[in-house]
Amino acid sequence: MKLSLLKVSALALPLLVLGLGSSASAHSGPVAKLTQVVGTVEYSKNAKVWRRITRTKYLFVGHQIRTGDDSSAKVIDQETGLSQDLGANSMIAIRADGPELIKGVLSEPEEAGGSFWAALQAKFTKAQRYTTVRRKVSMDEPVKVATSRNVSVSQTYPELVWENVGAGYAYRLTVDADTYEVPVASTGEMIRYRLPDLTPGDHKYIVEITLSNQVKFTPRSKSTLTWLSAEENREYLSVEREVREDGDGDEFLLASFMEEHGFLVPAMDTYREYFQANQDDNDMRPLLIKSYSDLMLFDLKEKEAIAYNAVLLSEES
User: Fold this and answer.
1) CATH code at 180?
2) I need a labelling partner for 9 at 20 to 30 A (CA). Which of 49, 123, 125, 183 fits?
């Protein structure tokens, strides 16, 4: 993993970060982003219920934004890459062709970044399948567990995760020829295991399910984890810091960067932290749903898909 490649990837992230889920429109993704929020800034989907914005927020067609006294924000159009400053005591509506000023002050557009409309639309279309609610597995079916086919780990991010199949079951993690017993976990929807330091490079691994020291499930194929060397880890963290600093609190940008480099577990944690603090942001929830799917956490994926679709139905009624 070379730093130069990481920098290129970081610059390319605006092409990848969006394109998931919209309750404002079932067939289109976010069209703008609100950043540099100062003071009282709120958004609404129906001009009746208004919610406070305190950090970067992605906007969909139909959203309205308003500012209070001594308040402001910057709106970036995701198709053109142009930004506009929204002044105090102002209101805009988000249209397919850009923000529309309803009252107050909205500056002339200025260059802020490149366009990524085509990539956004492609990713949004692909992501729709992750929000479908599937048939619930029967309790009579044999227990089984799946692991992500390819995942990156390091001294900074050493955890693997998989589903908790139920009380009483334990797990046996095998990495190459080394075996680690993972004790019974009676609660929690996922198992987390912190790996010891491994030699840099690719390693094959499987997770088996055990009950009273008897193996009840063994996967048919092995997954691959890639352990970064100390130097690779330093290079990665250096660019990750740049993404954090330049992203203006954009958790989706950060999580997408992590995913691009295989760090699926910290990406999931970033999404989870965001939605714990912003439970009303259903529009972007498919990002978390897809993250659970990538990590084979199917019960959590199903739970979020049900919640996502329930909000969609309530907004349509």
Assistant:
1) 2.60.40
2) 125
